[in-house]
Design a protein that fits this description.
heterodimer; A: mainly alpha; 10 helices; globular; B: alpha+beta; three-stranded antiparallel β-sheet
């Protein structure tokens, strides 16, 4: 069971660090200074979350690996993040709509994880909930601004939704490991969050005068280590310093 | 689109602890008051600086001008009797 909790914890850490890294690409590139700082706050929240998960994973593994080993010494096939987190940053609307989808997911997921029978996972989730409420407040408002803004902002927001939608299904997919952990009260039954997620996202998109696409395609594979071509590039950059100077401290 | 087309300037006031006054800490650009409040949180309270934030549209502040200085502030310079230190107190009055 310990090994399963370890894997589950690594998955959650992977989701956090990959999205945090992706968001940090906006650093100095956001539309204006205030938004730059705000986005980096969110990015750092995710990196901080990854540290908590990886730190716990290191304790569970008890084989000498540290949080850094999980972040910097694994290859893309070993990363088990959901694909939606690794997709390129795209334009601002794309990044914001991705945040909306992930934030609404987290607003439902984290309170459930906070009830986990694993105290450590529960504690990490409890801390992350507060951050996520703020993240959602931001992504919600930006979705409204973009959807009801100019023709161009509405178009870009709608394109983002159309491009991202097929990657949202993976969030509610459970494999054997996750089903077992959910059944034993340690993990969350993500599938049970789906209806409420669709409700909340639907309501926000409605409010923003944007549409849920009718397409049926869905991509998955992240949990098994099958990734899009984007992840390798992201890891290349994220891990370059550590790979050039292993164990370097400052 | 340039920043000035869509964004307005807001002044940010922070109360650092309960019981203290809000103090002006700086300004920022935002589209509306709600967004200004969020940016104020992100820009000025990253290290636990505040328990309450006010934002005010800079345009809504009526401020004294440099040109006003003569009429506003100079007249008080020659009215020392407005200061407590102007008065000599009799010895009988202690602890003033």
């Amino acid at each position: 069971m310990n090994d399963k909790i370890l894997q589950y914890t690594i998955r959650l850490g992977d989701d956090s660090i990959i999205l945090g890294q992706r968001l940090s690409e906006w650093c100095s590139n956001a539309p204006f200074l205030e938004e730059d700082l705000a986005l980096m706050n969110v990015a750092l929240d995710y990196v901080g979350r990854a540290r908590m998960y990886y730190g716990y994973a290191a304790e569970l593994a008890a084989d000498g690996r540290s949080e850094d080993d999980f972040a910097y010494m694994r290859d893309q096939r070993e990363f088990s993040n959901l694909l939606i987190n690794e997709l390129p940053k795209g334009d601002f609307a794309y990044s914001m709509l991705r945040q909306l989808f992930v934030d609404v997911f987290n607003i439902l997921f984290l309170p459930r994880l906070a009830e986990s029978s694993d105290d450590r996972l529960a504690a990490i989730a409890a801390k992350a909930i507060k951050e996520t409420r703020y993240h959602l407040r931001r992504s919600h408002e930006w979705t409204l601004r973009l959807g009801r803004g100019t023709d161009e902002s509405r178009q870009r927001a709608q394109h983002a939704i159309d491009d991202l939608w097929g990657y949202t299904h993976e969030m509610f997919d459970l494999d054997a490991l996750e089903s077992e952990l959910a059944a034993s009260g340690i993990g969350v039954d993500n599938a049970s969050l789906r209806a409420e997620w669709e409700n909340q996202v639907g309501a926000i998109l409605d409010e923003a005068e944007l549409k849920i696409p009718e397409q049926q395609w869905a991509v998955k594979g992240g949990r098994e280590g099958y990734h899009t071509e984007s992840l390798g590039h992201l890891l290349n950059e994220m891990q370059s310093v550590h790979r050039a100077c292993p164990g370097l401290e400052w | 689109m340039s920043k000035s087309d869509t964004l307005e300037l807001y002044e940010v006031f922070l109360r650092s602890r309960r019981g203290l006054d809000h103090k002006h800490v700086g300004s920022l650009h935002a589209e509306d008051p709600e967004q200004a409040l969020e940016y104020a949180r992100d820009v000025y309270t990253r290290r636990g600086e505040g328990v309450s934030i006010w934002v005010v549209r800079s345009n809504d502040i009526c401020a004294s001008q440099e040109d006003d200085a003569e009429s506003f502030f100079d007249p008080s310079n020659d009215k020392p009797y407005r200061l407590a230190t102007y008065y000599e107190l009799p010895d009988e009055v202690n602890n003033m």
